[in-house]
Amino acid sequence: MKIKFLTLFITLLSSSFLFAQDVNNRAITVKELRLEYHVNPKGIDVLKPRFSWVLLGEGRGRAQTSYRILVSSSQKALDKNEGDVWDSGKTASNNTNQIVYNGISLTSNRTYFWKVKVWDESSAESNWSQTAHWSMGLLKFSNWKGLFISHDVGYDKTDKYNSLYLPPARYLRKSFTPAKKVKKATAYTTALGLYELRLNGSKVGDDYFAPGWTDYNKRLYYQTYDITESINQGENVIGAVIADGWYAGYIGYGLLVRLDKVREYYGVNPSFMGQIHLEYQDGTTEIIATDRSWKSSQGAIREADILMGEVYDATMENTGWDAPGYNDVSWKKPKVYTYPNGELQVHPGGLVKNTERIRPLKITEPEPGTYVFDMGKNIAGIAELKVQGPKGTKIQLRFGEILKRDGNIQTENLRLARATDTYILKGDGVEVWQPKFTYHGFQYVEVTGFPGKPDLDAITGIVLSSTVNDASTFSSSNAMNNQLYENIKTTQSANFFDIPTDCPQRDERLGWLGDAQTYMRSATYNADVAPFMTKFLVDLDDAQRWYGAYPNFAPFPYSRPAQYSPAWMDAGVIIPYNMYKVYNDTRVLEYMYEGMEKFMEFQADASTDFIRPGGGNNWGDWLSVNETTSHGYVGASFYGFDAKLMAEMAEALGKKEDAAKYKTLFENIKKAFVKKYILDTGYTSEDTQTTYAFALYFDLFPEELAQKGADRLAEKIKKNGFKFSTGFLGTKHVMLVLSQYGYDDLAYKLFKQTEYPSWGYSVENGSTSIWERWNSYTKDEAGNSDLNGKMNSFSHYAFGSVAEWMFLHAAGIDTEDSGYRNIIIKPAISKEMDFINGSYKSINGHISSAWNWKGNKLIMNIEIPVNTRAKVYIPTSNVSNIKEGNKAISKLSEIKILKSNSKETVLEIGSGNYVFSTKI
Ligand code: RAM
Question: What keywords are annotated for this sequence in UniProt (predicted)?
Answer without folding.
Answer: Hydrolase, Signal
